[in-house]
Specification:
3-stranded antiparallel sheet, 12% helix
Length: 153
Amino acid sequence: MTQTFRFLRLQRAAVMMALSLVGLMPAVAASAQDSQPVADPAAVVVVGHARFTVLTSQLVRLEWAEDGQFEDRPSLVFINRRLPVPTFSTRTEGGGTIIDTGRLRLRYRPDGAGEFHPDNLSIRLTVAGQPVTWHPVSPRRATCAAPRAPWTA
């Protein structure tokens, strides 16, 4: 397992944990015997080496796999990903992909860097009535505060 892959798995887990702690993830009850870890294909958007699974209108699972082999085993956060597919739209714009659920807008523009980083991935949502834009932390940067080239949609 490469260092970057380990970091991305930890980063993905941290994102899911942070979103659930902020209260963005609605309660989804599933027992171990009802476990269906593979999401409905209609809820999945694949862009190059990235896979986005729209789990709810407020939660999107983010994955990046260099070999295109994505993880489908259950996680502690979501044992059952076979949920009703939430309403969302996908469009391509400016060399990137935009997923819009009405509650959040994810923008991803693959750039050959081999990972999610602040310049190629953002999620806009509202928290406590205030608009917030989330960016992943890059392993090459200590903070997400570095200037970014504008990318609007």
